[in-house]
Amino acid sequence: MNALLGWHTRLGEVGLRLFLLHLLWLGGTLAGGVVLGVFPATAAVYAVVRRDLMGRDEPSRLREEFATAWRREFRAANALGYAFLALWALLLLDRHVVATVDLGAAGPALAGLFWLLAVFLFGMSVAAGPLAAHFAESVPKLVVRSALFVLARPLVAGLNAVAVAVVLCVYYVVPGLVPVFGIAAPACLSFAYLWSTGLLPRPKEDQPAAMRRTTTPTSHSEGA
């Protein structure tokens, strides 16, 4: 009975924290005028989730922690976010051209290729958030790391993408969950899964685990 009560209490605490994170995400998005706020706010959510899952090194207020991450990641998160947005725009534009222009027998083959590219890019996109939160790298390196992660670990990347897709499907079926958990739930589930696989290297022992992102070069067969 005590164990069951403990699980319910823990679940309630996690749910409340995700709800508060979602509210902070909304505030962070609005603080940047949406176009400059959505990606830093998302990066801040991943940073807080990472810190929670890896163990908090010292107590801190959620709002202060989120604000610190938002300011720290403002430029890099916008650059990474709009880099992926450009990739999606290019892919959708090419898909539209193939769908509207008569290319003969090559049309169906190209359409199938673009579907595969869309799946690949989705896998990269949902992995980019956890990888950016964990690795202190430049935007080009993070894009490459995301691509290599999908290529080197297709099963892990696929399960990660499916987990996020399932949350999005649940949101579609139960829209009332969107204003409650928003981006926080898929971010938490995604990072928790990737961290549980052991593919994300732990920070050096002489530095706080939850505070520092990894900068040591790590092969994709070992770390990401």
TrEMBL record:
InterPro entries reported in the protein's UniProt record: DUF624
Protein name: DUF624 domain-containing protein
Annotated keywords: Membrane, Transmembrane, Transmembrane helix
Compositionally biased residues, Polar residues: 213-224
Organism of this sequence: Nonomuraea phyllanthi
Pfam family, one: DUF624
The keyword Repeat is annotated on this UniProt entry: no
Residues covered by region (Disordered): 205-224
Transmembrane intervals: 20-49, 76-93, 113-136, 148-174, 180-201
